[in-house]
Amino acid sequence: VIIAEPNAYIAFAGKRVIEQTLNKTVPDGSQAAEYLFHKGLFDPIIPRNLLKGVLSELFQLHGFFPLKNRYI
User: Fold this and answer.
1) Residue 54 in contact with residue 5, Cβ under 8 Å?
2) Which of left, alpha, beta for 7 (phi over 0: left; psi -120 to 50: alpha)?
3) What is the pLDDT of residues 16-55, one digit of tens each?
4) 20-30 residue pLDDT tens
5) What angle do CA 36, 32, 5 make, to 5 degrees?
6) d(Cα 64, Cα 32) in Å, to the nearest integer?
7) Residue 61's pLDDT is what?
8) Which of 4, 11, 12, 36 has the fewest Cβ atoms surrounding its Cβ within 10 A?
9) Measured distance CA(42)–CA(60) in Å, rounded
10) Are 24 and 15 a contacting pair, CB within 8 Å?
11) Which is nearest to 16 in space by CA: 30, 29, 31, 26?
């Protein structure tokens, strides 16, 4: 599960570096979490104030099943 925060800037290199290196124009907003979410890079976009609860639920979900065969 890959989670992003709203309006997060997600990039390996900045816009100017990419444009100078590849000699291509990078569209505005193409490195924003919302744009990348619509391209399928993230599962949810969660505001920071809700992140603790969402992570807690995910950990509980993944911890529901025991890892050792003797409990199965």
Assistant:
1) no
2) left
3) 998 999 999 988 888 899 999 999 998 999 999 999 999 9
4) 999 999 888 88
5) 90
6) 34
7) 85
8) 12
9) 21
10) no
11) 26
Of the chain, the end-to-end C-alpha distance in Å amounts to 25
Between the alpha carbon of residue 7 and those of residues 2, 20, 36, 39, the distances in Å are: 15, 24, 11, 15
- Tokens representing 11 are 């990039």
pLDDT category of residue 70 using cuts at 50, 70 and 90: low
Task: Give residue 66's pLDDT.
Answer: 63
Name the helix (H) or strand (E) containing 48: helix 48-62
CB 4 within 8 A of CB 33: yes
28: which 2 tokens?
Answer: 């505005």
- pLDDT given at position 50: 97
